[in-house]
Amino acid sequence: MLNIRQIEVFKAVMECGSVSEAARQLNVSQPSVSKHLSLLENRLGISLFLRTGNRLLPNSEAIALHQQVDQLYSGLTKLNAFMSDLAQHRLGEVQIAAMPLIAHRWLPEVVAPLLKRYPQVSASFPVRSSNWVSKWVAAGRADLGIAMPGPDKGVVAEPLMELPIVAVLAADHPLAGRDELTSGDLAGQSLITLSTFDYSPGFFDDLLRPILHHSGRKIQTFTTYVACELARQGLGIAMVDALTAMYFQIANSGLRVRRVEEEPTIQIALLSSTAWPRNSLSDQFMQLVRDRSATTMRELTQMLGTRD
Fold first, then answer.
1. Which long-range contacts (CB under 8 A, 24 or more apart) does 180-184 make?
2. SS3 track for 130-175
3. 17-76: per-residue pLDDT in tens?
4. 45 φψ region: left (φ > 0), alpha (ψ -120 to 50), beta (else)
5. What DSSP element (H or E) covers 124?
6. Which of 160, 125, 114 is nearest to 271 (CA)?
7. Can you name the residues that pair with 49 across neighbouring β-strands?
8. How far is CA 194 from CA 62, 166, 238, in A?
9. DSSP 3-state assignment of 199?
10. pLDDT in tens, 161-185
11. Which end of the chain is more exposed for a tag (fewer CB within 10 A), N or C?
12. Residues 40, 42, 48, 51: what is their CA dihedral angle, to the nearest 10 degrees?
């Protein structure tokens, strides 16, 4: 059986060059050091040192043993560093699945501070439909999800944000001077909507049915970003979520964002599994998401209450 104390004493003698210096380093008596060396040699059945007076000269066996001991201690040092990193959440892996609306810009801004703080942490951010995100969280294949809540069992949907649908239009559009647009204002107007939202055909049409009923030309696209760009080109009024609209407004794109009287909304939730345990790293990400969601809702409220 390996005796750790004997190995520790042997290592100290090899590195210090004398029994007295090794005893001083280990804060023990010289006889104690000599005793542990003798016990180690007896266990091995060989001599490790040539004793000349008060000096110990290591032989080839001692040198070979020291090389192995040194590798062992180096490995222990690395293991200790690894355990410290693990305890301080500097190591690990997290997978956060998100719907496109959230993943394109909002999510990177949220997770960046934590990933910068822990450079050894690995992360994955698959971007899929809300239905896909929910199923992956339920199956434990994603630690967290940010998407529209669905009916999947085994998933806890914690409300995060309620994003209003807003009207985005060019600065020189005739309706740009209004604070809020009604169905009457939008009647006969060219509206830019999404043909598929979150990979759900008809979602936007159902959400905006009262508005679209009296609209003029309808232009459809697949992403809110394209819808806003089309509005910037003067092709109509884009009906998009307030989060996308806010990012375009921040970019000084020349667009105006206006509330819609009916104010339909999109529900965004933080999804976690009821069956699969989370690690502490995931919990930290969850709190970041919660905090940023609250900040985002305040920013959206301010944007929709400010006239530009």
1. 180/258, 180/259, 180/260, 180/261, 181/237, 181/258, 181/259, 181/260, 181/261, 182/260, 182/261, 183/210, 183/211, 183/213, 183/214, 183/261, 183/262
2. HHHHHHHHHCCCCCEEEECCCCCCCEEEEEEEEEEEEEEEECCCCC
3. 778 888 888 888 888 888 888 888 888 888 888 777 667 788 888 788 888 877 777 766
4. left
5. strand 120-124
6. 160
7. 58
8. 76, 13, 9
9. coil
10. 999 999 999 999 999 989 899 888 8
11. N
12. 110
Report phi then psi at 120, rounded to 5.
-90, -5
Q: pLDDT confidence of 233, banded at 50, 70, 90?
A: very high
- Which pair of structure tokens corresponds to residue 128? 């899929």
C-beta of residue 214 within 8 angstroms of C-beta of residue 183: yes
- In single-letter form, the type of residue at position 231 comes to A
Q: How many Å apart are CA 69 and CA 63, to the nearest integer?
A: 10
Q: Residue 205, Cα to own-chain centre: how many angstroms?
A: 33
